[in-house]
Amino acid sequence: MDKSHLGDLWLIAAARHPILWLAVLKHILSIVFLVACTAIMLKATPSEEILAGIYMAKSASPLVFGTFALLNALALAAMLQPRKSAKVAGPTIAHLRRSRTRRFFSHDVTLMAFQTIETTIQVLQAYRLSLYCVDISIATAYALVISVACLGIPWLFFSTHSFVKTTLVLFFNSFVSFVLTIGFALTRFLPPLLTAHFHDKRTEYSLLWMTRYLSLTRFMFPISAMELVAKSILLASSLVNLRRLVAHVRRTTALRRGSVMSLSGLSMRKTSFVALVQVKRTLRFRRQRAQQVFFVAQQLVGAAILSNVLYIHAVRPRCPHGCALETAPWFQAQCTCRYLVINCKDGHNHEASSLLSTRTWGADLFMLHFVQCPLPNGIDVGTLAPFPSLFGLVLESSHLTNWLFNGSFWPASLLLLESRYSNLSLVPEVFYTLPPRLQVLTLRGNHVRHLPETLVSHWQSVSMLLLSETYLSSVPESFLQLDRLERLDLGSNRFTTIPTAWATALPALTRLEMANNNITEFPTNLLQSKPEMLVDLSNTHIDSVPPSLQADVASRRVLLDGTPYCASTSAAGCASVCATTCSTLQWGDNVCHVGCNEPSACGGDGGDCSALVST
């Protein structure tokens, strides 16, 4: 065996332990990421599945993610298991010395084929990320990783040294696939989702949060069968690249043990150093045509991505004032706003609906928020048609008095519709023709006193119904047919009791908010029949709690802050309130409540009402 081969073997052996420890770390992080994603999907409620756009969240998608978590765990266990030393015989060494052209051709074609498939999917994923990610720096970093890999790794295929063209190629491929498939999502995307999902769901009420992270869930999780296949290929590539690297390092180290005894340590180090630092001298470009085509294709892809990154940061126009969050899709020469805030007290003096133009804001609008705009008759629903990705529409402090149905239908993509603080006295007509998959419906802060029985047939898709700060004292019995309702907010109304029928109805209900009402009786039957439900009864007139349910107050599954019960006892689980019109659940929940804004002790609802002040 010549010195160059022995030098390659020595280099691989020297890198063995760092590579294996990095492989262990990658497997652990992959398991953490995949288990967390699987848990999110399995624990997601039906409404969360729709809002996040997760494809088959209770079957195929968690099965795929869970399977790859198991495969990583098995691979990790195999790595940590002690290996018996194997004696390497002469024929194995001869295998390394056989027809170099045939060996290199077979090796290169395999690596290039895998890398071409992987790069294609990575580029498509990077393009999708540019559509969804409002943190342009993250989308840029993701694209740059692919660009650097395309521009750099193909050069290594032309080396005549096995360490360079095999070990380094496998190492860099493994690193790139891990960073793109696991690294970005684990460090930048997943933590906020876990916090909102398992710690404080009020985080999800923020329109900024929805725009930022519900967009990203459409990148992190599969939204279709094709996306599930693409995710599977990327996860498989990350795992296979890592396993091939580990297997290569172990196998070659075993060869070294059996074949390098003839050279001195100094000679091996010298040969290895030359192989590593003089890579340029070992490059040979007279190779097979497939290798040259692969090289040119990778260079073109890398250069195209790099030029796009430079264009985005140097040339692409920024969105006008009013766009709170924007994206930077590849090779688009106009603003692409995702969250548009039209505050008519902040310089938007034109007719509000006339400000909606795809030429100004692009067609990828995700969230549209009108603030303090004179819209007594609402907006023409037809003006929303050019925005096929519109997720939410919010009219806040709009002086809305009536909103008639004019024959135009809502965009099918609309999942959130809110009217906050209006002059409505009746449910407007357009709320009888809701989008087919609407999840969040809000009628907060109005003069509505009565809800028609016929509304139920039009609100069957709704999972979060927010009817706080109105003049309601009851809801129709037909509301018991809202089987998908998960959250019901009837706070700051005129209720004196919670209907006993709710205890056996509303099977999906997990959150009931009845704060700031005149309720005097503790809903014992309701809490006994729905032991997992969170109930807010803050600032009501309840003065006693059955002993069997006092533990629920202590654990704050039932909130009684500001009630006579908390005022007269030192019971665990009681907290102070900033005002009798503001519950602790409302304060700082990322939504402006007038009852938490006007009292000075509440500090402007913890900053949630800042949008109502001209900026």
Describe this structure in words.
The protein is α/β, with parallel strands linked by helices and 615 residues long. The protein folds into 2 domains: 3-81 and 92-314, no CATH class; 320-448. Helix content is 46%, strand content 7%. It contains 17 helices and 11 strands. It has helices spanning 3-43, 46-52, 60-80, 90-97, 100-132, 136-156, 162-198, 207-220, 225-259, 265-277, 289-314, 358-361, 524-529, 550-554, 564-568, 594-597, 603-606, and strands at residues 323-326, 337-343, 367-371, 392-396, 416-420, 440-444, 464-466, 487-489, 511-513, 534-536, 558-559. An 11-stranded mixed beta sheet has the order 1-2-3-4-5-6-7-8-9-10-11. Helix 1 (3-43) crosses helix 10 (265-277) and helix 5 (100-132) packs parallel to helix 11. It is globular and about 85 Å long.
Q: Give, in spatial order, the strands making up the sheet with the most strands.
A: 1-2-3-4-5-6-7-8-9-10-11
Q: Are there runs of 5+ residues with pLDDT below 50, and where?
A: 88-105
Number of helices: 17
Overall geometry comes to globular
Overall radius of gyration: 31 Å
In terms of DSSP E residues, the strand content is: 5-15%
Q: What structural class results from the helix and strand content?
A: alpha/beta
Largest sheet: 11 strands, mixed
